Amino acid sequence: MTAASRFKESTKRMVMSCCALGCTNRKIPGSSTKFYRFPSDRSHMMLWISALRYRDFGPDYTYRLCSEHFISGKS
Q: What is the DSSP annotation of 11-74?
């Protein structure tokens, strides 16, 4: 098994949770809570980070925010 395939398998088993400070939401089958990746567009990403009031935060593709942190429930 290659390193890339081992990494892919390990990420399948990871629990998806919200990265917002104090939020304990996790992805649960059947739940209406959605999880969103940070935008790849740098300016859009910076808006999300500033709304979270984080300093020196550089999310990667594994970080998610749940729908409870959006006014409409959508990103």
A: HHTSPPB--STT---B--TT-S--EEEPPSSHHHHHHHHHHHT-SS----TT-EEEGGGSSSS-
Q: Is a pLDDT exceeding 80 seen at residue 7?
A: no
Cα separation of 10 and 32, whole Å? Answer: 25
How confident is the model over 25-62, as pLDDT tens digits? 999 888 889 999 999 898 988 888 888 888 788 888 88
Provide the β-strand partners of residue 66. Answer: 35
Other beta carbons within 10 Å of 48:
19
